[in-house]
Design a protein that fits this description.
Layout: H1 3-68, H2 73-95, H3 103-111
Helix pairs in contact: 1-2
């Protein structure tokens, strides 16, 4: 190769490297934005879970107290239960276990002890297409 051809190739290589660096930095910035949006979504979900549990408990307790003409015993009890259920739900969200079918399955999945073979289907529900 002659000297001008070599410089053209080096110039193309340098431009290609600059473009690849620009694309990589753009992808990194997009991933950072997505991560921030997901974190905000989890924060809003936690807040909604806490408020909803307490409000549902208060509403049910108020209704029961009104029907039975009692003092706010049921409302206080159900507010406490609603708060406890909300806190447990928040713990599941924070542990990232709410995406699975059940809590035990999620724990086994996280530990990597989940069987890959599906359980046998109940009698009368066999898939005949296979």
């Amino acid at each position: 190769m002659t000297d001008p051809e070599k410089t053209k190739l080096e110039d193309v290589g340098a431009r290609l490297k600059a473009i690849q660096d620009a694309v990589a930095s753009k992808k990194t910035a997009e991933k950072a934005k997505q991560g921030a949006a997901l974190d905000a979504g989890v924060g809003f979900r936690i807040g909604i879970e806490l408020v909803a549990g307490v409000l549902v408990g208060a509403g049910l307790g108020w209704y029961i107290d009104k029907q039975l003409e009692t003092s706010p015993i049921f409302m206080l009890a159900l507010i406490s239960l609603g708060f406890a259920a909300s806190v447990m739900s928040v713990f599941r969200i924070l542990k990232n276990l709410d995406q699975s079918v059940g809590l035990g399955r999620a724990i086994r999945e996280k530990e990597g002890k989940l069987d890959e073979t599906p359980p046998p289907s109940p009698k009368g529900f066999e898939d005949e297409d296979d």
